[in-house]
Design brief:
3% strand, single chain, 254 residues, 12 helices, two-stranded antiparallel sheet, mainly alpha
Length: 254
């Protein structure tokens, strides 16, 4: 790949127009088009959203159904709808608050745990895409470092064959309804507990902002709704960013 990149650079020097016709699909890329099932469509329509807010919800509802179930998606839509109604009552014509909540409540509700990592690995048929790219065949392995094993002292990633480990991924996806329950085998680490807490914490903060929402307090509420954008990364990095999020919340006076 390094050699090919070097050659591509030389080609660009010789013929700058050469790259204009290149359109290469990135392996593993997720398409943005959303085909809604009847169930997902009914949940989206319940939101009564239009415009950009409707677009945001349409993308996220199918993901939440796949992430957990339809009830989880309805819970998301019900909250966003409540925010949108309060926003229109206090600041008619504005939509930025509801749109921010649609983005960031989803982000918090769809945190990347072991069940979701398994689902995302299976979502696109990577093997088929690789077969198109490399007709001679290619062997695929997963390099995984689950928090549970790390807590037990395993410091290195595990190299696991795709063919047989896809079965384990399917089993994990089927187990996703254990998420957050007493039977969840992956729910004990601190980062998982914090991720679950953040959902309720964010909703409580937004509800607090709605109680005093007015044209004067609107910009502060929008800033609050967008704050989960700072919560990035995994494990210790994510936990540090959660503390940053909470610090900025306090800075806004919530």
């Amino acid at each position: 790949m390094n050699t090919q990149a070097f050659r591509a650079g030389r080609m660009l020097v010789v013929d700058p127009r050469w790259a204009a016709g290149l359109r290469k699909h990135r392996i593993g890329a997720v398409e943005s088009a959303v085909a809604l099932t009847a169930e997902a469509r009914a949940i989206v329509e319940k939101s009564s959203a239009t415009g950009e807010l409707c677009r945001l919800i349409e993308i996220r509802v199918p993901e939440l159904i796949a992430y957990q179930d339809a009830g989880y998606a309805r819970e998301y839509v019900d909250f966003v709808k409540r925010v949108a109604a309060a926003e229109q009552a206090a600041v008619p014509g504005e939509t930025r608050l509801a749109e921010a909540v649609a983005r960031y409540l989803f982000k918090l509700m769809a945190y990347k745990d072991e069940y979701e990592v398994a689902r995302l690995h299976l979502k696109n048929d990577l093997a088929a895409q690789l077969a198109d790219e490399y007709p001679g065949g290619v062997e695929v392995h997963y390099q995984l470092h689950p928090p549970l094993l790390r807590a037990m002292g395993f410091q290195n990633k595990l190299k696991l064959g795709k063919r047989w480990f896809d079965t384990a991924f399917r089993a994990l996806v089927a187990m996703r309804r254990l998420r957050g329950t007493a039977l969840d085998p992956f729910g004990k680490p601190k980062v998982r507990r914090v991720e679950r807490e953040l959902i309720g914490e964010y909703r409580t903060l937004i509800e607090k902002a709605l109680t005093a929402l007015s044209p004067e307090s609107y910009e502060r509420a929008v800033k609050l709704a967008n704050l989960p954008d700072v919560i990035r990364g995994y494990e210790d990095i994510k936990l540090r960013n959660v503390e940053r999020f909470r610090h900025e919340v306090r800075g806004l006076g919530f």
